[in-house]
Amino acid sequence: MFQFLKYLLWYNPFQPFFLKGLLIINFLGSLYGYYWYYEQLLATPWPWWIFTPDSPLSTSLFTLTLALLLLGKGASVKSVKEVLGLLACAALIKYGLWAVVVIGDYWIRGASVTLVEALLFLSHLGMAAQGYLFLRHWPFYLWQGLLTGAWLILNDYVDYILGWHPYLFRDDQVPLAAVTALVLSGFWFLYCLGRKIARNTEY
To answer: Is-annotated flag, keyword Transmembrane (predicted)?
Structure first.
């Protein structure tokens, strides 16, 4: 069992049954995420909606990527899923870790650990983990990685300069949330520059 899980999770997470399971989980998680952001979206002008629900947007992109992976290997599908999947993996890792930091800080400041927040903490850890599992196998050109990083930086700008960031547990968490987001975006650029680029792997 251990060897099977090691092979599945570390060496080849592209098994159809695994992709289907993740697709269902991420689809349902996305629906709950948009429900979580419902009131904030109502209070946010619609042009900024794409920048507001960071986590459910990340899982939605990943859900679409999984669907494309299951769809086939046509040239048009392959090119779309490469770019979309890269953005999805980067966003999953960034906003998964970002939420873990924000929730953890909330608990450290004395808040009680409720079931809802514990599930949010674990689900966002799962977001980051699945993003990394797939990213390590994902081929991309350097320019694609830098373009993805530019999107992450733009999101940071809209969130913390223009002020359309997700609602936080405490008002005084804004500096921590902003610094965490910017640091994670910076790590993405370092990752892109340090990784050996390979595009000859078929999925």
So the answer is: yes
Contact 96, 131 (CB under 8 A): yes
Handedness of CA 137, 72, 31, 147 (dihedral sign): positive
The string of pLDDT tens digits covering residues 104-158 is 999 999 999 999 999 999 999 999 999 999 999 898 888 899 999 999 999 999 9
Give the torsion through C-alpha atoms of 194, 202, 129, 90, to 10 deg.
50
- Picking from 15, 53, 70, the residue whose alpha carbon sits closest to that of residue 167 is 53
Tell me the residue length of the chain.
Answer: 203
DSSP secondary structure of 99-136: HHHHHHHHHHTT----HHHHHHHHHHHHHHHHHHHHHT
Ranges of each domain in the chain? 14-194
